[in-house]
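thought: fold this chain, then report.
action: predict
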Amino acid sequence: MLPGYDKLEPIIRIKADAPKEKVEEMMEKVFSHCPVITNFGGATQIKPK
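observation:
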C-alpha cells in the first residue's frame, strides 16, 4: 500500500439560476484548468460531486 489517498471526492455547491447543463459545462472547464488536479497528475482519482 502506498502512502497518500486512494481518491478524493470534494463536494462543490453552486447556487445559480443557470440550467444544470450549463453549470456542469462550466465545471468541466474549471476542472480541466484546475492546478490542484494538475498537481496530482492522475496519481489520485478526483471525483467532484
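thought: worth noting. Residues 20-32 form the longest helix (13 residues).
final: C-alpha cells above.
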